[in-house]
Amino acid sequence: MAITTKKTPVIKLRDLKKRFGIGDAETYALNGVDLTINNGEFVAIMGPSGCGKTTLLNIVGLLDHAYFGEYDLDGKPVDSIPRRRQAFLRSKQIGYIFQNFNLVPRLNIIENVALPLTYSGVPKIKGLIIASDILKIFHLNEREYYMPHQLSGGQTQRVAIARALVNKPTIILADEPTGNLDSRSSHIIMEELSQLHKDGNTIILVTHNPNLTTYASRVITMLDGKIDTDSKPEKPSQKTTKVKKPKKKLVAKTRRRKK
Ligand SMILES: Nc1ncnc2c1ncn2[C@@H]1O[C@H](COP(=O)(O)OP(=O)(O)OP(=O)(O)O)[C@@H](O)[C@H]1O
Ligand SMILES: [Mg+2]
Q1: Residue 39 has pLDDT above 70, yes or no
Q2: 3 state DSSP class of 145
Q3: How far is the CA of 49 from the centre of ligand 2 (A)?
Q4: Cα dihedral sign for 108, 114, 116, 121?
Q5: Largest CA-CA distance found in the chain, in angstroms, rounded
Q6: What residues contact 76, with CB distance under 8 A and at least 6 apart?
Q7: Is residue 161 a part of any domain in this protein?
Q8: Residue 6: pLDDT band with limits 50, 70, 90
Q9: Least confident span in 8-22, 47-61, 239-253
Q10: Ligand 1 in contact with 45 (CB < 6 A)?
Q11: Domain holding 62: CATH number?
Q12: Which of 2-11, 172-181, 246-255 is the least confident region?
């Protein structure tokens, strides 16, 4: 992981607009977003359903290129980066935990988790070993050879999270990552995100749960496709509920791995 304590803008958005539909059906999902996120920040994004959170994450995650405005990633205009290079950056640098999981239905669980490693050139067997390791951390090792449709919603969510983190990305985009999880599983995920943040990675967490913003260093609210408020969390790093600590630390384990 590229860890540096120097604060530099990793994501810079200027007057970002995203339009869906045409004519009478035209709506702006994003309507002029100006946002700079420095490396190492843990940003929580909140806001009512439909205000543009997922749309924003899709653009930041290099999945959606059809927008107006400017987006610089690591100081480089994304427009100037060839698509193939963007795909490479996405697989190496960005871990995306999707709101709707996005597992590949025809691949089993371990193959799904190993997928980002395949994209970044890790040999297949090595990728499966790494995927198996990470699945253990999320208590899913007994489900490695299940197909996605055979898992519960919460299990599917944990697989999606394991897949997003398997490549040790430096930017983690998490769209409601704990939405389907019980409180203990939520705590495991939030502690892992918190540890990744402490290690210097940049986290953007979309959540409807105000309690989870206490993990963040900055809280942004969106309204009608715009940034509404941008502030420090009210009670920084204070967990109000005492939950049993997870046995293993994902980060400690993944950082031991040499690529
Ligand atoms: N593919 C699409 N076609 C047309 N409209 C879309 C599309 N995707 C999103 N929208 C619209 O854009 C707006 C923003 O959607 P988005 O998914 O970003 O909201 P959100 O803040 O993530 O909401 P939620 O909290 O419910 O996930 C909504 O009004 C939505 O209907
Ligand atoms: Mg959404």
Answers
A1: yes
A2: coil
A3: 7
A4: negative
A5: 55
A6: none
A7: no
A8: low
A9: 239-253
A10: no
A11: 3.40.50.300
A12: 246-255
- From the CA of 224, the nearest ligand is 1
Determine the distance separating the centroid of ligand 1 and the alpha carbon of 103, expressed in angstroms.
20
The residues pairing with 221 across neighbouring beta strands, listed in sequence order, are 46, 229
Please give the average per-residue pLDDT across 165-188, as a whole number: 87
Structure tokens at 166: 């398997």
Residue 68's domain comprises: 9-102+169-256
Q: Give domain status of residue 232, yes or no.
A: yes
39 part of a folded domain: yes
| 11 beta partners | 37, 73
8 Å CB contact between 46 and 220? yes
Has residue 144 been placed in a domain? no
Predicted model pTM: 0.86
Number of separate domains in the chain: 1
| Least confidently predicted of 76-85, 87-96, 124-133 | 87-96
With a 6 Å cutoff on the Cβ, whether 80 touches ligand 1 is no
Nearest one of 76, 77, 71, 40 to 57, comparing CA atoms: 71
Q: Is 54 in the pocket of ligand 1 (CB under 6 A)?
A: yes
